[in-house]
Amino acid sequence: MRTALVVGLGAAGTFASICLAKKGWKVLAVGKGTSSCAMSTGCLDGSGMDPECLRELSRLFQASGMPLVGGIDEKRTGITNLGTRYDCTLSAPGSTWVQGHGPRSITVLGMGKHPSLRPNLVASVLRSWGMDARPQIVPMDIPGESSLTAAFRDQGHLDRLVNGIREAWGETVLLPPLFSLKDHGRLDELERRGGRRLLEAITPLGTPGERFHQVLEDGAREAGVEIWTGRRVTALRTEGDLITGADVQGGLETRTVGLDAVLLATGGPLTDGLLLHQTGLDDPFGLFLVKELGQGPHDLMLSGYAHRGGRLLSRSGTPMANAFAAGDCLAYSLRSPGKGLGDAISSAWGAVRTMEVP
Amino acid sequence: MNEGRCIKCGSCMRACPVLNDPQGKAFPGPRTVGIDAPRFPEALSIGNDALMCTMCHACEWACPSSITITRSMSMLRERLADAVPSLPGHQRMRENVRACGRTVASDFTDWRENGERTLYFPGCIGLGRLPELVRSASQLLSSMGMPHDISPRAKCCGSPLLKVGAKQEASSLQQNNLEVFSAYDSIITSCPGCTYQLREVYGIESKHLVELLPGKKYRSTVEGRWALQVPCHLKRGLDPWAAEDMAAVLVQAGVDLVRLPEEDLCCGGGGGLLSGFPDTSASMARSKVRIYREAGVRGVITACPFCALNLGREGLLVLDISQVLTVVD
Fold first, then answer.
1. What SS3 class is residue A298?
2. Following CA atoms B98, B101, B107, B108 in sequence, which dihedral angle do they give, to the nearest 10 degrees?
């Protein structure tokens, strides 16, 4: 059995790990800290995605009990927790609508003084883009820093919310995200009991991203991926153009593992992946060529590992035999805001296909 | 410290097992207590609720900026101790230490002082509440070829006292213990809280029993399916390899082990939560017990007396790793 080491536990690394494990690789995935994917909105722009890749991703969400809605080119819209408009093509159910079929009248529901959704602010922003919106606050005592997902496991809170929804005006009610992946089915229950269409506000740095990450992590476990959290790959061992092993550091101890292929999914400079070096970026392993795209420091976000046919290049520009990369650590000239998550998934899919080519 | 690196992403709060418990909503959260309070002294008005942290390091592991949140919270507790009245459970603990040198009184009698080069340091909870754990750990160490003393002169490691801000008392215990330790070449513990204290605060090279297990052959003494309860201080505080090492040893020994994603979720027993906020601690333990019951396991195997005590109180069968292994010659 071939062993693949995947470095990075974000969207690209975890999705690639799942695909590799399903293709018969023994996969070890190493990383630390919360990934960008878990801080994202959990929505993605799937334009340009391979339909087979979307089928694989959809299967994972289906199995998690929170199926994805939308498609590669389906234009969907939602409302962010600030009341602004959010466009994507794929999202969790109950947080977006097909463009042109949005709600005309909406109540923005705040959970007491909890800062997750500010009804007055959001309603006035919604009115500014032509929607008939009214604010409403459900009286409940949930401290600002405490988690809504924990609070709404409590039946008392849920009952009070149902009453609030029943009293709401208009056809649709906008709520902050209330349910973790395990409890996501309760959104349907809430909709039935409240008698209104519910819409979850698109919220970064919260439950939706966490749910997205959880779907991938559960999928990886299910596929038999060995996940080493809280650890970091500090060095890669080479013989010529071949990577033969890796040093993995956790606490005071460093252990060496052997491998047949390595896939870097370490993210860009913001996520501690690529190193900031003087005015440009550098490879923390000191092995691979980093390509600078654009001009000036603001273009650093486009820069990353250079590759040929999916294989990483050595410092001298020749392709490595068994080193690959996916996601934000790759140099990518077409990246645009809001496309990161879709790009991460697509490039992980591409990297796995390259790894299958001898 | 390094709190200034905070990017306000909230990952620490979403990772916090206390905030995620219905009984934990009074806790101001790791960001307020571990990041803002140390920088803005006026935030010290948060009072006793700031102590509702189990020191499980989950926030620290979640932090994308690698802020040492747990350490910051420990330092804050020292300052809080002068500002807020002590909780009844914490007071009792301090009185016990004053009376007998340990957080709980012990009628343990199997002391061994044979002039060995190794000292087994079981800790207060083991000696006071789980003497069978201490005996099995001692037996396992002996059969692993590690003869050792168990000294009545070694007292509380001081970790629980630091958690309630009693720095003076903790440092006099440390002085006493270091004197006892000076007669030995190595110190072995079975409580991750003690290990953390000895290594990170005393600065000596102590080892937890789990760290000594790999490399030998064992046989299981238990039947049925088991899950792991991975101790927070051990895995996230000291040794990220602990869960894999425990699992590998147990599987090799023939234990039918199921790995659950929630195995390293905090049980609620640490950081003074069990003595200071027993309701929150019990609620966290109940949630974990529910997860284990749903998984259909007979019980859990752990390596921490606090986990054993807290989950055991909620009716779960909990065994220390030393209670399920015998050495194969």
1. helix
2. 170
Q: Where are the beta strands (DSSP E) in chain B?
A: 118-121, 186-189, 207-208, 218-220, 225-228, 256-258, 299-302, 318-320, 325-327
Query: Is the CB of B25 inside 8 Å of chain A's CB atoms?
Result: yes
The structure tokens listed for B71 are 């350490």
Nearest CA in chain B to A36: B64
Give CA–CA dist B227/B257, Å, rounded: 6
Sort out which chain A residues have CB atoms less than 8 A from B10's CB and list them.
Answer: 205-206
Average per-residue pLDDT in chain A? 93
Chain A CB within 8 Å of residue B15 CB: yes
What confidence tens digit (pLDDT) does each residue in A89-130 have? Answer: 999 999 999 999 999 999 999 999 999 999 999 999 999 989
ipTM: 0.92
**Does the beta-carbon distance from B240 to A251 stay under 8 Å?**
yes
8 Å CB contact between A109 and A134: no
CB contacts of A255 in chain B (<8 Å) are: 241
Query: Is residue A179's pLDDT more than 80?
Result: yes
Q: Is B71 helix (H, G, I), strand (E, B) or coil?
A: helix
Any chain A CB within 8 A of the CB of B14? yes
pLDDT tens for each residue of B255-301: 999 999 999 999 999 999 999 999 999 999 999 999 999 999 999 99
Nearest to A34 among B20, B62, B239 (CB): B62
Nearest CA in chain A to B27: A146
Tell me the C-alpha distance between A250 and B13, whole Å.
23
Query: Higher pLDDT residue, B38 or B150?
Result: B150
Cβ pair B106, B183 in contact under 8 A: no
Model pTM score: 0.94
- Interchain proximity A251–B66, CB inside 8 Å: no
